[in-house]
């Protein structure tokens, strides 16, 4: 990674506003190799560049949907100024940053994913005017484009404001002016908190936590029912994820020779080639690591005879993620005890998926899956029945641990800020997408179960769309039944 000058030229929205002429133009890294910029070089860099403005841009695919979403937001909060930031870059270490991922609320309403962006809805007599505040192209007059660590020659070209207007269908303005504008604003204001400290500081005396939470909750509940664009993106995410699982099966021998990291890297390659990223840290849990629900260290051995619990999802370029789990025999064949536990989880998942339909309570699929698992635990003599007693006391949870699913979308645990009465205590509607993912986990140190159970963890997870008629399994491209899994693995290994 190249090391160079880091100017004080502002290249992001700050509470302080633009730099004044009296301030230092260029600020050098402590151990940079150049002491400064000569007047001659600075003048030379201002000229001789071709016009690269893009003038024939078409709107992004979801522009019509984002316009409808903004209209619904406007109708919900008439007469109020609404501020929705994208967020800022976050430091990973010293002067390097994490890859930027825009706030879901902002991307959902705009389709834009660039750092420092802010959507502002200004109230009018009959609704709101909309402005998307963005960083313009890197400035060539003050040298930002080649001197700033976030300049065009360092991290790539930003869209001009005119280009952004064409892409997103929203009037665009320079975000570096926004903090001052907001400080002078009057009337009721709401902001989505937690993404942009500079914007929040400019509004500190104009907002309340309670009112801001109402905005956050509304935007979370707005995503409960997916539109046709979103369903299409989720299917793309799932289809890429299916291919990622196939990739993993084909290289299990290499994972055995190395570690779980080989599995993680293999799936990540598919995610980066076909999408934006993984939607969450991939869980590549072999052997007893499968009993750790969110095992993302992925540094353990992969052994023939053990199970591999792979929980992973590709995130599309528009930030919709899949979330799929399969528990696979590393050598391609389940042992007798592995198959017994796996088939029990499969039966529970079948019951859960069957309970997903419009008009059903959200909790129904969880209750259906848990009933099957509780019955299996009683049948195996691991807990004293009857099943109703086990469920009433929650005794099955020693081995089932987690809920049986969650909403899915731009977040892997989507719509998390929604009110309980509209989410977990709500009713399923066509267009909702959720996971169904029962599991059984017998910890390696659990002395309450026979030794042959210990260290076995099984989860099966699919992404389910609620339809008018019932449901559709978006991830049906991956086999689930134990014999079908074995046949599929054998075919991939050739």
TrEMBL record:
<keyword id="KW-0031">Aminopeptidase</keyword>
<feature type="domain" description="Aminopeptidase P N-terminal">
    <location>
        <begin position="60"/>
        <end position="200"/>
    </location>
</feature>
<dbReference type="Pfam" id="PF00557">
    <property type="entry name" value="Peptidase_M24"/>
</dbReference>
<feature type="region of interest" description="Disordered">
    <location>
        <begin position="1"/>
        <end position="40"/>
    </location>
</feature>
<keyword id="KW-0464">Manganese</keyword>
<keyword id="KW-0645">Protease</keyword>
<dbReference type="InterPro" id="IPR052433">
    <property type="entry name" value="X-Pro_dipept-like"/>
</dbReference>
<dbReference type="GO" id="GO:0030145">
    <property type="term" value="F:manganese ion binding"/>
</dbReference>
<dbReference type="InterPro" id="IPR000994">
    <property type="entry name" value="Pept_M24"/>
</dbReference>
<keyword id="KW-0479">Metal-binding</keyword>
<dbReference type="InterPro" id="IPR036005">
    <property type="entry name" value="Creatinase/aminopeptidase-like"/>
</dbReference>
<dbReference type="Pfam" id="PF05195">
    <property type="entry name" value="AMP_N"/>
</dbReference>
<comment type="similarity">
    <text>Belongs to the peptidase M24B family.</text>
</comment>
<dbReference type="InterPro" id="IPR029149">
    <property type="entry name" value="Creatin/AminoP/Spt16_N"/>
</dbReference>
<keyword id="KW-0378">Hydrolase</keyword>
<dbReference type="GO" id="GO:0005829">
    <property type="term" value="C:cytosol"/>
</dbReference>
<dbReference type="InterPro" id="IPR007865">
    <property type="entry name" value="Aminopep_P_N"/>
</dbReference>
<dbReference type="GO" id="GO:0070006">
    <property type="term" value="F:metalloaminopeptidase activity"/>
</dbReference>
<protein>
    <recommendedName>
        <fullName>Xaa-Pro aminopeptidase</fullName>
        <ecNumber>3.4.11.9</ecNumber>
    </recommendedName>
</protein>
<dbReference type="InterPro" id="IPR001131">
    <property type="entry name" value="Peptidase_M24B_aminopep-P_CS"/>
</dbReference>
<dbReference type="GO" id="GO:0006508">
    <property type="term" value="P:proteolysis"/>
</dbReference>
